[in-house]
Structure formats: C-alpha cells, structure tokens
Design goal:
With 563 residues, the protein is α+β, with helices and mostly antiparallel strands. Helices cover 36% and strands 23% of the residues.
Length: 563
C-alpha cells in the first residue's frame, strides 16, 4: 500500500514539473530558445515633434544613428576593430578588448552617429555590425523654453519637462527586423527575415506662441541683467481659457548642449520655477482679497465693505499683539479717506487686514480654496507645487490679517496667475494647460479643450475689480505699466523674503500681475524678479517689464488702440 502511494506521489511530482515546464514556464523557454537562434535589428520609432500653437517646430529630430556589434558574428576581429575605431574615433585597444571578450552578445558601439559616418561604415561591409536610426533631438530655439520643453536621455526617452510628461505620446513603439542565426550568432544562409514596423510617435502642439515667448524671453533677460537679480520668471496666460502663451525662467541653458556632466547646475537651470517653486506673493495677493470682499458685499454680507466705504487712515493695525504697518508713513494726509479702489492704488496693507478680519476665516478661506490656493492647478507638467496655506482650523487672527495682504501664505506663480485671471475674466476658473493638440502617426488630430473648474465670483464683481485694477495702472503704484490707448490693469507686489524663519535683510521678491484690455482681458502676465539689487519695488522693477511685453504683444498681434 505504501509503495503504491510513493509511486503515485512521484508520478504527481513529475506531472507537476511537466505541467510547469510546458504550460506555466513554456512561453518563457520558447522565447529564450528563439533569442538564442534569432537576432533582432531594432527599428526605432520616430519621436514626435513638438510645435507651438502656430506650427513652428520647437523640438524636432536630427538624422543620426546608433551602431551595434555582435562580436560572435565578426569574421575578422582585428580588421573590424581598426576600421570601426577609425570611423567612430574610438580607442583601438579598448575596442579590440570588447570584440574579443567572451560571453558578450552585443556591444553598443556608438550613438548619435552622423549619416556621413554611416555611409563610410557601409562601404566596408563588416559582418556582425549593424545600425539603427536614433532619435537625436534638435531644439530650434536653443535655450528658449528650456525649462518647459525639457530634454531626452541618450536613448531618446523624455526625462524632464514636456518631453517627460508627454513621453508616452511622443515616443511611439519601436519595431524590429528578425533573422535566424546559428548557435554562436552567425547569420544562416537563405534565412527568412521578419519585419515588424515601428509606430512613430505622435506630434504635439503646445499653447505656446513662440513670438510672444521670444518677446518675453528678451524682456526678462534685460530685467535679469539690469537688476542683477538672482533669477527672473514670467508667465503669459490667455485669461479666457487659461492656455499658457509664454513661460520664461532665467537664467537658462541650451537644450542642444545640456550640461549633463554637472548635475547640480543642470538641476538648478532646468527647474521650472513658475510651476515648482513657492514664494510669498505680497501685494499682488490683494487682488484676491479685494475679489472676495466685493463678491461678499454684492451678496449682502454685512461684514464686507462697500466700494464707497472709507477705511481708517491710521498707518497701523494691532492684531493679537502684532503690529501691522503700511509701507507709507501716512504723513501729510497720505492714504487718508481711502476707498477699496484707493487701497489698491496705494497698496495699503492695513485696509486689506481689515477686510480679511471682517470677512473671517471661514468666509475668506472659502474664496482662497475656490481660487486654487493650497492645491495644484492641474497644469500638465510634472512637479507642480501645492503652495502653502495654513489649515483653517489653525489660523489665528494675526495670520488671517497677514494673508489678507499676501504674507503668511506661499503660492506658485502659476497659481497666482490663474487666480487673478479668474478674478478678472468674469469669475471663471479653468485648468491651465500647455497641450493644444495631438496628431497621431496616421494624421488624426485631437484638439485639447479647456476644462472649466468652477465659478469663483460673479461677472459683476469681476467687472468692478478689473476696473479698480485699471485705476492702479492709470493712477496708482502700477503707472509704469501704463500704455496710452490701451486699457492695461494690474497690481504691483514687493515681498521681503523669509529665510530660516525670519525676514532676510535686503532680499525681496518684486512682482507685477497685469492684463489687458481691462474690460475684456485677452492677455495676462505675471512678472517675478527674485532678489533684485538696488531698487527692488515691484512698481519700479516688474511693472515696466510687463509694459514692454504687452507692447510687444500689441505689435505682434497688430492690436489697435481703444482710444
């Protein structure tokens, strides 16, 4: 009885092993066998191009190749080493060693080889050597949009920026040419060749307008040089649908000469500060506080201030034992009899402290959340920061007071640009985006539509606010952004930087957010100057830059004056 059980057990073990090898592991074994008796030449898919909204190529491909060697298939190693080393400028001894090393099935000899070198290679007809097309990127405008476009690795895959975010669209699917060999890898005679074609990557079009981008790049470089700033940034947005028309970070680097051997420098220069870095916005944030107040007043909230309300002319407010001051000393009647419009013109902190405290944390935070603060905008770009917004349950009156005029809160530039756009475009918040359309390998095009996120304030409140912000440019701190005949509106900002929990002496972020025309915004720009030297006020450093960019847009688009 026991012998029968033992035989049955052994039979079951043998059957289980047979089942595993034939069924479970069978496909893997077949693939291994095929790999031993077959060789593949890759057919590299053409990486899709990246263009701007008008079809101008931003990222295309060079005609280059990768070269491979199968040492077992090389019939004359010494001859092959001498020829290949000469063509591709390789160390002869090193190459000879690689070609004679045992157990190596394939060597990557060269990448990004020119067509001229491949033509040379073909004339020698060396067994065991073959080549495949590369995807070497060529960036038409060099350093322009470098932090947005990003770059690819040596094997053609995107590793930063748009190249990374949309790599699955751009990359396509590689094919192969499969042919039979003997056990040591030498091609057999009269063997069948199997060709599996590649599927090329999709071409993508961005919302970027290269003419506006180039204009903004030039202006921001001039600001960087004239202010001796640590860095400068700019985003130009279509406030009607939140398409990104331009995005500038400077200093920059040449995408055709990426400093890959210096990771620290590369990480610094390739970082898209507009999307990934946060800062205290200062007075540009007063646009949001004013928007919340106007909307609440129109909704009948008795804690909100009317547009004709006269704020206290006192220079200071004391909250939780903390004294908040206006930048002006209020002498000689300065900042007296201020309405909300005057407070925006004068950028008077105490008035916005009054608004935030009067609205209260629950109401004010409702607007902060609706305007996207404390969360990502959803821009199609990796690494977007969420900003910093104190939890509503933990916020104190002194914190709320400071948030009202842009302190004790940190934002990204994309967050602030979108928030202001929603505040002045009729109250409509959209998801910002860089992708405009996709055209696949078959020529089918898919247009990307803007995604509506929500209504933040009413059209009436938005119109009132936009009119007030036009006054900031015609009468207030934003005068250096004024353009005769065009309804430019905006708000200046100057925020002292915090480092290690305290104010950093002499370090400021100067900014200006502006748009035009004020009664029907078509273009919005946020200028940010990080640590300008000498004159540091946003009104003096950032507002003139916005004016130059707007004047360039007016010329590019041939926009006629309104007056």
């Amino acid at each position: 009885m026991s012998a029968g059980l033992a035989i049955a057990f052994i039979f079951c073990v043998i059957f289980a092993r047979f089942f595993y090898l034939q069924v479970v592991y069978g496909e893997t074994l077949v693939m291994r066998a095929c790999d031993q008796w077959n060789r593949e030449i890759p057919v590299i898919a053409v990486r899709g191009t990246i263009t701007d909204a008008n079809g101008n190529v931003l990222a295309g491909n060079l005609n280059t190749y990768s070269v491979f060697v199968r040492p077992n298939a090389v019939t004359n190693t010494e001859y092959a080493a001498i020829v290949l080393a000469g063509i591709f400028d390789l160390d002869l001894d090193g190459l000879r060693s690689k070609l004679t090393k045992k157990g190596v099935s394939e060597i990557t000899l060269a990448r990004n080889a020119s067509a001229e070198k491949i033509e040379q290679l073909i004339t020698y007809d060396i067994n065991g050597v073959y080549f495949a097309r590369d995807n070497s990127r060529l960036y038409t405008y060099g350093d322009v949009l470098c932090q947005v476009l990003g770059f690819t690795s040596s094997d053609g895959n995107g590793i930063s920026g748009i190249e990374k975010y949309y790599n699955s669209l751009l990359a396509g699917t590689d094919g192969e040419i499969l042919y039979a060999t003997d056990i040591i890898g030498i091609e057999t005679e009269n063997n069948a060749v199997i060709y599996s074609p590649a599927t090329d990557g999709s071409n993508i079009s961005l919302t970027i307008d290269i003419d506006i981008q180039l204009a903004a790049e030039q202006v921001m470089k001039e600001v960087y040089n004239s202010s001796n700033a640590k860095s400068v940034s700019c985003i130009v947005l279509d406030p009607q649908n939140f398409e990104v028309l331009a995005m500038v970070n400077y200093p920059s680097y040449d995408l055709n000469d990426v400093p890959r051997d210096d990771s620290e420098t590369l990480n610094s220069l390739s970082r898209n500060a507009v999307v990934c870095d946060i800062y205290e916005p200062g007075s540009t944030f007063k646009v949001i506080t004013a928007a919340a107040n106007i909307e609440e007043y129109l909704n009948g909230n008795s804690n909100a201030f009317s547009t004709s309300y006269i704020f206290s002319s006192s220079r200071t407010r004391t909250v939780d034992g903390t004294t908040i001051k206006c930048w002006s000393d209020h002498s000689n009647g300065k900042h007296s009899n201020q309405t909300l419009a005057d407070a925006l013109n004068n950028s008077c902190n105490p008035c916005f402290t009054d608004i935030a405290l009067s609205l209260g944390s629950e109401t004010f935070y409702k607007y902060l959340t609706a305007f996207g603060f404390g969360n990502v905008t959803g821009l199609d770009f990796s690494g977007e920061a969420v900003g910093m917004l104190l939890n509503e349950t933990a916020v104190r009156d002194c914190d709320l007071a400071r948030i009202g005029f842009g302190q004790s809160v940190a934002v990204t530039q994309i967050q602030l640009a979108c928030a202001v756009a929603a505040a002045v475009n009729g109250g409509n918040y959209y998801v910002p985006h860089l992708l405009k359309s996709i055209t696949d390998a078959s020529g089918n095009t898919t247009e990307i539509q803007s995604v509506f996120k929500g209504k933040v304030i009413s059209e009436k409140a938005s119109s009132i606010l936009a009119s007030m912000l036009e006054g900031v440019v015609t009468e207030g701190s934003g005068k250096k952004a004024y353009i005769q005949g065009y309804k430019v509106a905006g708000k200046t900002g100057t925020a002292q930087k915090f480092e290690n929990g305290s104010l950093a002496a002499g370090k400021y972020v100067s900014s200006f957010v502006g748009f035009f025309p004020s009664d029907n915004p078509q273009y919005l720009a946020l200028i940010t100057v990080n640590e300008p030297q000498g004159v540091y006020y946003g009104s003096a450093v950032a507002a003139p830059a916005a004016k130059e960019i707007f004047e360039d847009i007016i010329a590019i688009k041939n926009i006629q004056p309104y007056e």
